[in-house]
Amino acid sequence: MTKMLDDNPLCQMLGIQYPICQAGMYSVAYGKLAAAVSNAGGLGVIGSAFMDPEDLRREIRLVKNETDKPYGVDILFAEVQGGDATAGGYTREVEEHIEVTFEEGASVIVSGLGNPGRIVSRAHAAGMKVMSLVGTSRQAQKVEAAGVDAVIASGNEGGGHVGRVGTLPLVSKVVDSVSIPVLAAGGISNGRGLIAALALGAQGVWMGTRFIATEEARGHINYKQKIVDIDEDGTVVTRGHSGKTARIIRNKFTQYWAQHEAEIKPFPYQLREVGEPASALGRIEGDAENGVLAAGQGSGLIDSIPPAGDVVRQIMQEARTVLENWS
Ligand SMILES: Cc1cc2nc3c(=O)[nH]c(=O)nc-3n(C[C@H](O)[C@H](O)[C@H](O)COP(=O)(O)O)c2cc1C
Description:
The protein is built from 14 helices and eleven strands.
């Protein structure tokens, strides 16, 4: 099992030391966080959603300046129809993010939503890997058929957009359903979570909430402190943020939309008109009551705001201790 911790096939495929990947969280995971995680031996990932294309270029260059290790860019490949759709079926923003990522380069492109099938052969030709978040085994099989290199099975316990299935059954089922490597996500915040994920058959973890409460994450201290303060039951799932189900910290924003469900617009319009400005209010300006603070149930396990590299090292240390105790 020690080999699964330090040098497993996923690590080899991604060129990383430890099987710990930091989720590409929009507005929070900018270059500084991604570089810190990559430098510590994990995979740092920039969350590109809602970034101006030139800001994305700047953040990728920042990572390239701070590390020569692998890093990723996460793009929400949500397909849209009608006025907003480009010929490729994505939004203009997505098309721009794809182009900037290919121009600047990245080790991995991660699809946070939708099917990235259209860019897989182009990514492989450029020497990049493609990973896709999924919430069911059917989605996992679909993106495997589209040629992605690994899937991230993200369960309902996680922060941000979530499906209906919990991490424990989802990860096992996805592992049984595909032949490419699987990463586990949703509610994983410590070394015991990493060991549990490996026991389920995953080869690595994809962690969001744990990395928000770090020094390098882009976010107001009130947001980070709220993650430290709340317990494992301090979050709720709502469509009020984006039109799709998302897990966020319970506050006045979530209470308002619980009473106004009929007014929620479909994705991505609710996100653009309501969720994105409310995210800026909560995550960046620090209004913890009226803003959106996405976070998962793993918040209950988080009690400090350390440098991101320390998080990677602590998780590896705790995971090794579990194995030593067993043997
Ligand atoms: C603040 C926040 C923003 C997120 N934004 C994105 C995103 O832009 N793209 C994406 O693929 N996933 C996004 N996610 C979901 C994560 O990729 C991941 O699935 C989730 O954080 C895993 O659960 P955890 O938070 O319990 O670790 C976001 C999550 C959070 C908490």
